[in-house]
Amino acid sequence: ALSDADEARIRDCHAAYYTAALGRWGEELKGHGQLAAIEEVRADVDNARTAWNWAVDGGQERVLDSKRVEWIDRAVEGLCLFYTWESHNEEGEAACRRAAEQLDEAALPLEDGRTSLDGATRANGLRVLARALVWQGGFASTLGQSEAADRCYERALVALDHAQQSDPAADVRRERALLMVRLSGRPWITDSAKSRQLAEGGLELYQAVEDRGGMANALSALAGRFWSQYGLETTRRLREESVSLWRSVGDRRRLASALRMLSYVLDELAQFGEAERAARESMGLAQQIGNRAVAEQANYSLSLALHYGGRFVEARAALKGSPV
Questions:
Q1: How far apart are alpha carbons 299 and 317 in whole angstroms?
Q2: What is the DSSP letter of 108?
Q3: Residue 169 parent element (H or E)
Q4: Is 62's pLDDT higher than 60?
Q5: Predicted confidence band at 119 (pLDDT cuts at 50, 70, 90)?
Q6: What's the pLDDT score for residue 320?
Q7: What is the C-alpha separation between 263 and 268, in angstroms, rounded?
Q8: Cβ of 19: how many Cβ atoms within 10 Å?
C-alpha cells in the first residue's frame, strides 16, 4: 500500500500535468483550435476535475501554498471556459466558490499578523482569488443569482486593491479589465456615465496588454449598453470592430454572437442585406460548433432582416426553421 506521502506525490504530479493541460486548453478554447480542444476536454474531464479538486483542496491541508495557487491560476480559465461552453453553470459556480474560499483564507492574516502567502506571493494569490471570484460571479449571474454575483465582484475588487498594496509591481491589468467590464453592466450602478467609464477603462487596459479577445468583449459591452448615447453609426462601428477582433483570434463561439448582435444594429440602420448576411454567418458558425441556442437566436435575427426587407414568406420560413 502507498504511504500518505507517496500518494500525495502522485496526486501532485497528476495535478501538475492536468492543470497545465487545462491552461493549454483554455488558450485553445479562445481561438482557432477550440473545436479540437473542447473534444479533448470532454474526453479527459474526469482527470481535469480531479486535478482541480486536488489543487483546491489538497487532501486535508488547510491552507494553500504557492504551488497550488499556481495550479489554480493555470487551470481556472480552461475549466471555466469548458463549463461555459457546456452550460454547466452550477458546477462552474461551485468550483470557483471552493477555490475562492481557499484562496481567501490563504491571503487572510494569521493571528500573529502573517499570512501563509507573503509579499509578491500573497499578491499573486490575491490576483488569482480575483480571477476565481470574477468567474464565480459570471456563473452566478447566468444562474439568476444577481446579489451573489455582485458580492463576488465586490470581493474581487478588494482583492485586486490588496494585491497591489502587497506588491506595487503586481500586474493585475487583465483581471481588473475584465472586472471593470463586468461591473459596467451591473444594475446597481445607476450612473450611466460611471458605467460607461468602467467599460471604457476596461477597454484601455485590454489594449495596453494587447488582449484582442478582451478588447472585443469590452467593445461588445460598450455597444450593447450605451448605444443610445453613441448613436447607431458609432454602435455599428463598435460592433464591427468586435466582429473583426473575434474573427482574428478565431473564437467562433463569440464571433457567432457578435455577428448576431451586429445584425440587429444593421436592421435599425435599414441595411437589411448586410443584416441578413451577418445573421446567416452567425447561424452557420453556431451550427458548426453545435451551439443550438446561438443558432436559434441567429435564425430569429435572420427572420427579422428578411421581414424588414419585405421578404415575408422567407421570414416566416426562417422562423419555422425551414431553409431560406
A1: 10
A2: S
A3: none
A4: no
A5: low
A6: 80
A7: 9
A8: 24
Dihedral, CA of residue 193, residue 137, residue 108 and residue 79, to nearest 10: -130
pLDDT digits (tens, 9 = 90+) for 178-213: 999 999 988 777 778 888 999 999 999 999 999 999
* pLDDT of res. 70: 94
Nearest to 231 by CA among 193, 277, 265, 190: 265
Residue 198: closest CA among 189, 207, 210: 189
- According to DSSP, residue 271 is labeled -
Each residue's pLDDT tens digit, 125-178: 999 999 999 999 999 999 999 999 999 999 999 999 999 998 899 999 999 999
Closest by Cα among 99, 177, 172 to 139: 99
Residues in the chain: 324
**Does residue 14 carry a pLDDT above 70?**
yes
Contacts with 184 (C-beta within 8 Å, 6 or more apart), sequence order: 195, 196, 198, 199, 202, 221, 225
pTM of the model: 0.90
Q: What is the dihedral of CA 269, 256, 146, 49, to 10 degrees?
A: -170
Helix (H, G, I), strand (E, B) or coil at 155: helix
Q: Answer for the pair 259, 285: CB distance below 8 angstroms, yes or no.
A: yes
Q: What DSSP state is assigned to residue 116?
A: S
Cell of 291: 451551439
> 239 is written with which cell numbers?
460592433
Cα–Cα distance list, 66 to 123, 162, 244, 309 (Å): 11, 17, 39, 59
DSSP-H helix ranges across the chain = 4-29, 34-57, 66-85, 89-107, 119-142, 146-166, 173-184, 192-208, 212-225, 227-230, 232-249, 252-268, 272-289, 292-308, 312-319
Q: How far is 10 from 15, CA to CA, in rounded Å?
A: 9
Comparing CA positions, the residue from 51, 25, 53 lying closest to residue 38 is 25
